[in-house]
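Form 12-C: Joint structure prediction
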Amino acid sequence: MDELELLKKDWKQNENQFESFSDSDIYKMSHKKSSTIVKTLFYISMAELVFWVLINFLPFVLSDRMKAQLEEISHSWIYIGLNILSYAVIVAFVYLLWKAHNAISVTDNARKLMKSILKTRKIIKYYVLYNLFIALISIPVSLYFTINEHPEISEKLTNATSSQLIVMSLISIGITAVFLLLIWLFYKLIYGILIKRLTRNYNELKKLEV
Amino acid sequence: MNKELEKSFVEQLQKHQNIVHKVCRLYTNNADAHNDLFQEITIQLWRAYPKFRGDAKFSTWMYRVGLNTAITLYRKSKRSINTQAFDTVQFRIKAEEYDDTEEQQLKLLYQAVHQLNDIEKALVLLYLEDKDYREISETLGITEVNARVKMNRVKKKLRTILNP
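Section 2 - Result
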């Protein structure tokens, strides 16, 4: 006999061997707290949004001078434009996340469900990449302005030889890159652990359809 | 939520609870994990219930939500043993241990099924439940042809695990 037929025979015979839950057990269970990958992804994405918004506000909180400087330029069109842009990006991401999150339905077929969850994760990934990109630009820019603001540093810099300048720029670029890389690896690790099983199962189904 | 709705849900699930138990049996390997998964599937079923329409059979709908929860949504709690760890512990079934009696063979078969991956387990479950390839393909989101192909591969894989 086919192995699976033998298994099926036994499976049917043992159909009623399970502990039977009563109506009240089921009622209680249906109101318990759920713990799913979708929920975890949702919390992580919220933390992500809050984290980067806070990072942007950090200069205001940490340094009075920075605050004064920012207030000084707060009427310039560039500053207002950049601000509007950054808020628009946040709003766009919140909207995309909300849409992707709503599209996740447990009653879809397995492949579609996995695809919608992976799409949500992709949006979070793009948001992180966007912020890392902004950080990559703003760190050297702020460094440049800091140097310009401090006459003693800029004086030292004008006296420095060109090779010293190159070494200094390389070091600062290196530190920025390492810092951003570490953040990126950290994300990779978190999501890697979280969606490892999901990705594997999705690929298994996708492989069949090729 | 509506009390009537809740009552009809609990009644239907109570009646068909074996479907959930069977999903749990394939995807977990101890009583605690079984009950944890049962609870999560119950939560997911209840949340999806208001949108459940009579056009699908309640049991068909349960297989789908149950498998989706087991394969994709469920995050194992601390007290459940990771099925992945279980998967990697390869049961080496030695030739001399292989007894031809049906019971022994069944025991080995269940062990072999537990070694399959999540998708293969879903195929086995639907097969054991006498679901046709159309329903299997609709539940997993693959074509009927591919469901057949995959099922044959699973059978072959089981044979290989049983007779290494």
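Section 3 - Comments
The helical segments of chain A are 3-13, 23-30, 37-62, 64-73, 77-103, 110-149, 151-159, 162-209. Chain A has eight helices and no strands.
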